[in-house]
Amino acid sequence: MRLERKFTESGKDAYSALTFTTTTSEIRNPDGTVVFKLEAVEIPEGWSQVASDVIAQKYFRKAGVPARLKAVKEKDVPEFLWRSVPDEDALAKLPENERFAGETSSKQVFDRLAGAWAYWGWKGGYFTTEEDARTYFDEMRVMLARQMAAPNSPQWFNTGLHWAYGIDGPAQGHHYVDPKTGKLVRSKSSYEHPQPHACFIQSVSDDLVNDGGIMDLWVREARLFKYGSGTGTNFSSLRGEGEALSGGGKSSGLMGFLKIGDRAAGAIKSGGTTRRAAKMVIVDMDHPDIEAFIDWKVIEEQKVAAIVAGSKAHQAQLTKVMEAVRAWDGTLDDATDPNVNEALKDVIRAAKKHMIPEAYILRVLQYAKQGYDSIEFPTYDTDWDSEAYSTVSGQNSNNSVRVTNAFLHAVEKDADWELINRRDGKVAKTVPARELWDKIGHAAWACADPGIQFHDTVNDWHTCPEDGAIRGSNPCSEYMFLDDTACNLASMNLLKFLNADGSFDHEGYVHAARFWTVTLEISVAMAQFPSKEIAQRSYDFRTLGLGYANIGGLLMNMGLGYDSREGRALCGALTAVMTGVSYATSAEMAGELGPFPGYARNADHMQRVMRNHRNAAKGQTDGYEELAVKPVALDIDGCPDARLIALAAEIWDGVVEAGAKNGFRNAQSTVIAPTGTIGLVMDCDTTGIEPDFALVKFKKLAGGGYFKIINQSVPAALRKLGYGEAQIGEIIAYAVGHGSLGQAPGINHTSLIGHGFGKAEIAKIEAALPSAFDIRFVFNQWTLGEEFCTKALGIPAARLNDPTFDLLRHLGFSKKEIEAANDHVCGTMTLEGAPGLRDEHLSVFDCANPCGKKGKRFLSVDSHIHMMAAAQSFISGAISKTINMPNNATIEDCKAAYELSWSLGVKANALYRDGSKLSQPLAAALVEDDDEAAEILESGTPHEKAGVLAEKVIEKIIVKEVARAARTKLPERRKGYTQKAVVGGHKVYLRTGEYKDGNLGEIFIDMHKEGAGFRAMMNNFAIAVSVGLQYGVPLEEFVDAFTFTKFEPAGMVQGNAAIKNATSVLDYIFRELAVSYLDREDLAHVKPEGATFDSIHNGGEGTPDADGNVSALGQSAATKSLEVIKSVTSSGYLRNRMPQDLVALRGGMDRVAAELAGSTAASGFSETAQATFTTSTTTVAATGLNARAKAKMQGYEGEACGECGNYTLVRNGTCMKCNTCGGTSGCS
């Protein structure tokens, strides 16, 4: 092939127009420990710190790179392409520890990638002259350095290590086809032929142990996972449950084997840390076990809930059994005998009612007899990486069902659907099609799986049907082709083809698409594969996966909304040009090297598919051949770039003509991948075909930490829309903040000076503001110094150390003043409400989720699907994309999204409803009388939800016109109790603080391992209630306002002796407080035992008869003892009741009573000490952002990365990626 230069000049160094610099790459865990550090990393100037970290941590070879190299002369290979090996003589002269090291410069990586491609390209006959090979080598290096495109991760990991450094190792069972002989060869080296492919589709036969069978598949998968690739398999060939076995008996069915494979994948993939997208599991809709498959993950999530709830119930009930034994005042044998110990009998009965197995109850009694006085029963939580999730199956794959047009038509007609046996083809079962469809909708709604692949739509665009139907896909659903084939991916960064004047670089885009198609084709020629079948079929069909990233960033830069006709039309045109150029290049290579071996028998089909692509590229609505569902044609009138439209039509005319003449070198050429890690290397604002997830990003600093920057697309969009630089500055400052209090409203330099702040203190505040998320986290003793706070501001040291202390409120600033200053300094993280921004332009800046504290706008479900449909008509394979749905979406919404996708010709679809995973519970609307507040609590940020809750509390207080006196301070060391309970399966800790007289003065609420939003909301709610109590608001007012409120979580209450059911967490909390402090027995389901303190002085109820051998306390003894008890224990803990064991034998009542009072005081002290620890952890969360809440506010998912532990995961296609270390749960 003849190749031209576009980005380099002949005779000049490829990097001559670029400037390189050095940086330190360091990635830390949230606790500050260093995960990875490399100094003096050489990277192109302009690369972000994240991109630098990803290439250094992920893609630099860490060891085995020789300090001295020598070239290996090779006949008929240009000298600049000779491969290198260690120079043993030169290395021997170096100290041993300096002979081998790792890569330290990005140039080394670019050179080894492009060099290996050029080397194998030369050997494969892809270049006409040596100058063509040099042109290719230089152009590829520069495109990598300029972040214009990037190959999938396995290329970065494996390609060029043998060519550049002579790195080698023993063979790993791979195969390849020798291009000269066409014969299948078993690899003798692990690196000479690299494994550059990310995506695999593997077959499985209905055989247990032979080659190609079930157990063999797990081995083949392991070989792929080890090298960072992903794989998908259609398991529909496996017989269903109950089908006959050849040796007699019946099959256990599909699901048992799927669970084995899932467990194997979880153990192998990234050491078990990557939980999703290791593999794709596909089952056809007519499989006998399809119902079990659809409900698989739904049931597994229910198992997690059961494990969590059951473990906590066991812990609570078995602890009570042990406590009943310990409380017995007598022999140990009697204490453990329920026939003697009545209290033990009661708790055993209660434990049995909670379904605690008798064997466990007996085990606790046996422990007690052996002298143990406590038990530890392990409890589990719903955290996504918890033991509860790792215990169940189905967590290491994406699941998809393969639906046909016949099934979907049966759904439309409410017809029956037959499930077919795999062995004899007979009908195993007949079920209503709509019933199955409802199951799919419910499962997608409940746990985000399964996705859907539209079988007939996929196969209508199949270029090689003579070799069989397409039945499977890779883990992310973008690569769909025959079983036992592979695809290597590369993606172009669209934003790099946008010129400074706002025009699109058509020629550069076409040039890049051509070169990268050649690169991917060379990668097929040089690769080795994990099985003989994949090696042979990859040689026979040579499928490629060229795609793009950053369409969301490009559209915003051009002033176009993601959900706009112009945006969709531009996306369609760009896709049409990319795929057209790729197929044109494939036809060109076929003219020189011949078409792929499987082309001849499929020529008519492939040319028909090309004509259909051309028809769509010309905007035609009719004239398609053999398509059951018409594609979305290119919107010629809607596209803002007329040159792209003309180019698309011209290129596709050429494709059809060249294909008819030469055939094609590749059966497929393009997909749209999620571009996870490689998107970070290219500094893409958006990945794949996705929109942006946030307008304000947190840019990583080389020395650690972050600072806020506006999405780089926003200023360009505003200029495109006609805003002046001054207006743009104001709008951006509104989003990211001014980072200074200089001109802030209410709280500024002038007002602070009036409160005693000097220049030094203001300078300290100003220095801390740029990196702050909230100004309240800057105004503290650590910024200002304890001496200034205590002496100049007169704040007691004890108050400074109170985590709930708000210095700004102490200085007299109102909540509104603080919020206004906060918006000015820290920004709103949204453009909604920005000064001067016109409403008609807001759609340009819409993201996948609401932005910031005040943002309400986000892209609709349909907008995602319409964008996919605009591109799908021009993609060989499919598109990896998650359809984001709000939490309040219904099951019908899920089914409607699938149906819309089918009607528009989309090949596959996956839904993600916010909060559909058990590990991410969300709060429902907590207010019913305020539509705006309800909307915020449904879709707002955690910070916003907490604010609304606090405001609703204050509203209820003010409306009641409660007379407020001065705030009554609580004692520095105060009593209280901690109540642990489980409400609707969610652990709730309630901690109280009391005044000396036993009245309630503060509460703390913590939700153990809950979703960040709800946990932060409860913490802030508790602060609001505490402030009200300390200003004299009666507890009765809160009880009346918040009991019987309804929202999730709700349901059965475990761990509370008096309350057994609650309609919400708030209902439970205020029932508990009412029972404990107000003696509101009407709000308890089980009346608290014992007499109240007040009734003791009146004789009480149930006083033992005088004839018995025990006597009630005398008046003086009771008074004295109770005063002692009440002074050191929490009245709430005792529920205002006399301790049950406060009785004495005749004669010595006062002495025994005093001893009992002393022992009670001691136990009360230990409870207080224990509770203090809980309080400290709870209140920190109440005033400072926890990691999950902070991540949510930054626009992240709120989950921790499995590799580096940072809370910087974002959704990426059907996968997740980490913006700190670049880790991805996918395969790109």
How would you explain this protein's 3D organization?
This protein is of the alpha+beta class. 42% of the residues lie in helices and 12% in strands. It has 43 helices and 31 strands. Strands 7, 10, 11, 12, 13, 16, 17, 18, 21 and 22 form a 10-stranded mixed beta sheet that branches. A hairpin with a 2-residue loop joins β23 and β24. The longest helix is centred in the N-terminal third of the chain and has 37 residues, at 290-326. The radius of gyration is 34 Å and the shape is globular. The model is unreliable at 270-277, 921-935, 945-965, 1091-1119 and 1138-1185 (pLDDT under 50).
What are the SSEs and their pairings?
Layout: E1 20-28, E2 34-44, H1 49-59, E3 65-66, E4 69-71, E5 84-86, H2 88-92, E6 100-101, H3 106-123, H4 130-145, E7 149-151, H5 153-158, H6 161-165, E8 175-177, E9 184-186, E10 199-201, H7 214-226, E11 230-234, H8 254-268, E12 279-284, H9 290-326, H10 332-335, H11 342-353, H12 358-369, H13 387-391, E13 397-403, H14 405-413, E14 416-420, E15 427-432, H15 433-447, E16 451-454, H16 455-460, E17 485-493, H17 506-526, H18 532-541, E18 544-549, H19 551-557, H20 565-593, H21 603-617, H22 642-662, H23 677-681, E19 696-700, E20 706-710, H24 713-720, H25 725-736, H26 749-754, H27 759-768, H28 781-784, H29 786-792, H30 797-800, H31 807-810, H32 815-826, H33 861-872, E21 882-885, H34 891-903, E22 908-913, H35 931-939, H36 942-959, E23 978-983, E24 986-994, E25 1000-1007, H37 1012-1030, H38 1035-1042, E26 1051-1054, E27 1061-1062, H39 1065-1077, H40 1093-1096, E28 1110-1111, H41 1115-1128, E29 1144-1145, H42 1149-1183, H43 1187-1193, E30 1209-1212, E31 1215-1218
Parallel strand pairs: 10-11, 11-12, 12-13, 13-16, 17-18, 21-22
Antiparallel strand pairs: 1-2, 3-6, 4-5, 7-17, 8-9, 10-17, 14-15, 16-22, 19-20, 23-24, 23-26, 24-25, 26-27, 28-29, 30-31
Helix pairs in contact: 3-4, 3-17, 7-8, 9-11, 9-12, 9-15, 15-34, 17-20, 19-24, 20-22, 20-33, 21-22, 25-32, 35-36, 36-37, 37-42, 37-43, 38-39, 41-42
